[in-house]
What does this fold into?
Amino acid sequence: MGSDDFYAEEAPVHRASVDGFWMDEHPVTVAEFRRFVKATAYVTVAERPLDPADYPDADPDLLVPGALVFRMTSGPVDLRDYRNWWAYIPGADWRHPEGPESGLGGRDRHPVTQVAYEDAEAFASWAGKELPTEAEWEFAARGGLEGKVFAWGDEFMPRGKVMANTWHGEFPWQRVRAHKFEGTSPVRSFPPNEYGLYDMAGNVWEWTVDFFSRKHVNEVEHGCCMPHNPRVTSADQSYALGQPGEHIPRRVTKGGSHLCAPNYCLRYRPAARQGEAVDTSTTHIGFRCIVRPEQAR
Ligand SMILES: [Cu+2]
It folds into this structure.
């Protein structure tokens, strides 16, 4: 697990073991999520009214249901300020990913987006499944390859082949057409890894149950014992102190998305991880589920 060669939060490389489990072959799709909502009348976080007490530093005019929508810029921008390409759009939700005027036409087989952590958990328990831990997710993404940079090996485009839906060109203003997708792509559009799993890199980030930490501190091997089924269950280290929303716990997301580009975020790799506030819904985060053997019995 982990990597010492990219971003600080992935370090250190360490061993961990997980029990066997089954995993969804691809991220949960719009069609699958629709079935869940039809069956349960579930209302996602992005569709619910917001309590000003939860968002003391927010502009009250923006405290209306909505979600974050990516907007390509017309030229290079300051990459330190994500507000240059993310906008909070009232009325954006999983049915209207880019805002009230947008729809899902033709996107039934795309990963569902605009789902907060709680929404992913609600789907999973309805489906009789669970969300993976970070260790389970990373184990699955590696597909049996040890210590490789990508889910398929060490080369980004082996023999020139595009292996995942990631951003080609300079983010967030220049799109080089290496593949035909803008935004999410139908699941299974790119080759699976050695475990038969699709979209373990790129397309959408995926929620895991672990709380975020700046490094893999707690799970690292002490002397004799390799951590078994590691899981970060305390939110204490997860807060983004000094930033907007600093009181909201963050969970680990994995896999990178269609917005990841080498000039900004080379995170379409099994070791890569990002902390995401649990109430965040965006156009580039989705999830997939697992089944552990004790559930299957
Ligand atoms: Cu990224």
Q: What stands out?
A: The chain has a mean pLDDT of 94. The chain has four helices and eight strands.
